Amino acid sequence: MPRRHRSAGRRSRGSLARLAVPVAIPVALVVAVGAIVAIVDHSGANNVTYAANANCASPAAYVVPAKPANRASHGHHGPGGTASPTAAASGTASPTAAASGTASPTAAASSTATPTTAATATTVATPANSASATPCPSATATTSTATTTAANVNCDIIVPANPLSARGLATPYQLTGPDGMTPAQSGCTMTNAANLGAFVQATILNTRTGRLYVYDPLVITQGTTPAVAPPVPTLPRHYVATIDFGFNGTVLTQVGATANALRQGNCVNGQNGSAFGQVSFCNGISFFNAAFQDEREGKLVVPSAGTSDKIVASGGNLGTGQTCPTTRNFDMVDQDQSDNVTTLYLLNPATGQTAQDTTANAGNLAGATTLANGSDDILVDAFLDPTLGCTPFTAPELDNNNQPGTSQALNELLSAKNEPAITALVPENDEMTLDGNGNFDAAKTNMYREEVGQNPISNQNNQQDSPAMYCQNMVNIQTPFLAANQALLATGATPVPGIGDNLLTFMANRLSMSFTNLNCQNFGLTDPVTVTLDGNGAAVAATFNTTVQTATNTTGTATPTATPSAGASATGQGNGGHHHKLMNPSGM
To answer: pTM (2 decimals)?
Structure first.
């Protein structure tokens, strides 16, 4: 019997050139955990369809952005670019307000007003996008499973023996229900990936040469077999690997296929009685320690983040000028940075079988759909980088004929190498790092940070990343970045049509929701974003107040202490919530 483990464990498709799929991004609204299934018709044009669990926010299918230009096999950020839209106001983007269409005093949804330029605020209005009005597609699950899924939001994932070995990487992980529930009873099936899909990603370092590789272990529904057997990768003789997990539900719990599997993989799920939630890890601390050592010795050379002359410098001394954003930049972070992976899988809808998303498998599995797990890494790699003219950090994918691919760990290495003067590190008010009672937990926060290669809490980094300062920096850096680059960002495709109708409105809505879900109002700050919503609750215009703010209360609590502003939900969730109580509002 598998052993339950509840204690303290990006890749835009390696074939990003082939992918042209801006990967699916989970959408979570109100208390429901949302997710997305990226659907690709491999016999024709590539489209992405977003499906949300329960309160769906008008997801829609659309043609994915074109592949980034000038992609190097080693990957780096370069000049040029566009961004992915996000818009959210504290409470103005709530589903209730969306329904009434009175969420914001700004221009109407159909407005095409020219952006204004005031001393402290700028506005952009974009036409209502017909895609955002598209009805929510149903999840690819049976009726009985879909009914069960509405009640269950947690799943278990069975980790194979010796998960860090070549054979372990090639052994499929199995998705099943929690507490003895079967996949059918719980809805924990990969055919229901939009709501409860699990994803696994490995990044491998040759410790002798400093070379990096990516491999995406396959997840199958327990009781099924792979559509195509995963290849056993050829690993360097001297290597260290990290395995990252992502989930489209609420809590994914690692379960060992054998009594020693989780110990063999150095896997952690959080603290006893307090899981991280959607994410977990195996061997992250050892991987990043080895990688940083190889960097110091000159074996591993992580590239520069690069710059883009398309980016309009913003934020004065607080901003990063024209440097390409990384996942530790306040101009793109949200309420839960460094979460989830960029792995994609192929699904045979007829059989429910999954396969790794490789060029060969895509060509051989006619009619297969592509499943994805949204993340900040996907936002950077597939939306912001192409729009802003930047390039992701990549490494050969061992499961895809060594085609260049990205991963969460690669992005963390890039971010660590190119940290801005004001660096965003996972804060204590990230709900994944709160303790079981919803309080700040420094030990759990440090545990999370170590698994993604970040420094533990210190007096020095608390000046930037304490709960109050994280909120202050997010407001004072991201708001002017979006305001200054709104024209460019508005040309980018939206990752989630139900959140914003283009990359700008998506980013704006996401910022506002993050402000609410991090309880930034507890620190004496004011939501800097106001959005205009269409009839389906998607942001179609945004106004930014770029006045620099200062946190007046630096000892705020993890739970809301102020009455939500007009339009906000009673629980202070804005347009959505987070993984445990609030769910992730935008999926990125």
So the answer is: 0.77
